Amino acid sequence: MLFFFLNPLIDVKTNNILLDDDLQPKIADFGLARLLPEEKSHLSTKFAGTLGYTAPEYAIHGQLSEKADIYSYGVVVLEIISGERSNELKVQGEFEGEFLLRKAWKLYERDTHIELVDDTLNPNDYNAEEVKKIIEIGLLCTQASAELRPSMSEVIVLLQGKGLLENMRPTMPILIET
């Protein structure tokens, strides 16, 4: 099961996730790390990050919060499942010329989001319903409104199967393209 605890306000993307000798994920590159005063729920700053992984409220308005990391986490989950980079255009297939988040959302709308799975994976090696659930969690994390995104503790509960995902439906993400 893929999850790890996030430190607030770091540059979460696949290039910044390293594996140790036991294949445990470690976050590298703390270029966005800021200290948040206790009385503040978000921080305004000039943009420093990677489009495709950056929450819309930060990319557009410069507002950072812990929910910005949740957005990045959702993008990373979708990348791992699909085997595609979030900020690269796919050059073949039905979704040619679309970024990963747009593709994932369109598949979800059609209830065919299992098609997002990397086609080099053997379907006998994973549970399709579990993968669909994880894709939905990834989409929940990338919702346009930070308030609608789950907290990391809620994500963990959902990934562990202890929460009721049927009561939570993702809304369309804001698609910021490079």
Helix content: 25-40%
Count the helices. How many?
Answer: 5
Along the chain, the helix and strand elements come as EEEHEHHHH
The CATH superfamily appears as: Transferase(Phosphotransferase) domain 1
Overall pLDDT score: 75
Beta strands, count: 4
CATH topology: Transferase(Phosphotransferase), domain 1
Fraction of residues in β-strands: 5-15%
Main β sheet profile: 2 strands, antiparallel
From the helix content, strand content and strand pairing, which structural class follows? mainly alpha
Low-confidence stretches: 1-9, 32-36
CATH class: Mainly Alpha
Q: What characteristic shape results from the CA principal axes?
A: globular
Give the domain tally.
1
Biggest sheet, spatial arrangement of strands: 1-2
CATH architecture: Orthogonal Bundle
Cα(first) to Cα(last) distance is 30 Å
Computed Rg: 16 Å
